[in-house]
Amino acid sequence: MGTPLIELRQLALQFGSTTVFEKLNWTFDDPCWCAIVGPSGSGKTSLIHMIAGLERPSDGEVLVDGRSLASMTDDELSVHRQKTVGTAFQHFHVQTDKTALENMMLPLFFSGADLDQGRQRASELCSALDLTAFLQAPVRQLSGGQRQRLALARALMNRPRILLADEPIGNLDAENAGRVLELLRRERERGLNLLVVTHDDFLLQGVDQVLRLENGVLS
Ligand SMILES: Nc1ncnc2c1ncn2[C@@H]1O[C@H](COP(=O)(O)OP(=O)(O)O)[C@@H](O)[C@H]1O
Ligand SMILES: [Mg+2]
Question: Which pTM does this prediction carry?
């Protein structure tokens, strides 16, 4: 076995006197195609934010590829967020005054990737997610489901090693949910790893492992 993909070591999340979880330990190996379920408030969103390097644990550490996020410089953390992980979170975080294409190109400006290749990648992802007609449309004109697919497409732009997603198909009809699964399957073939918070049966059936986070315990 090589270096684990993600390691949670004695991870804790506390707010004042409230402990959501503590001493959380888990190892995710590559390839990882895994879902996290659990009751509302159990800390699922916070956990994947921590792995994304967007939230600091109260205690313990997250290692990705053997490197502790806490030991990274700001520049290294940016690279982690731009290239290692792609994030598609619940409130979409898409910029509504920009077009769909501009939203998708944004990660490339930060990572310095080739723009022509980026446009090609954007068009390939949009075609897979039935968003092609909206590439030049301002995001404020897009429906919730279209924005959700756009957030996912943007998360995959830099071909991240790990996709971290929080209920990524919550607003989608069956046809579009099928498109998302099909795209994820294809990305998996080129080495994508997935860690997804979801309660959707359709998505749960597509993963290799389901973890439950409840009462501070991951099992
Ligand atoms: N900034 C915050 N301040 C105080 N409590 C918070 C904050 N963020 C999250 N929490 C609390 O932490 C717990 C876990 O939240 P969250 O990770 O969103 O859980 P889940 O995604 O499983 O529903 C919840 O009880 C929530 O109220
Ligand atoms: Mg949540």
Answer: 0.95
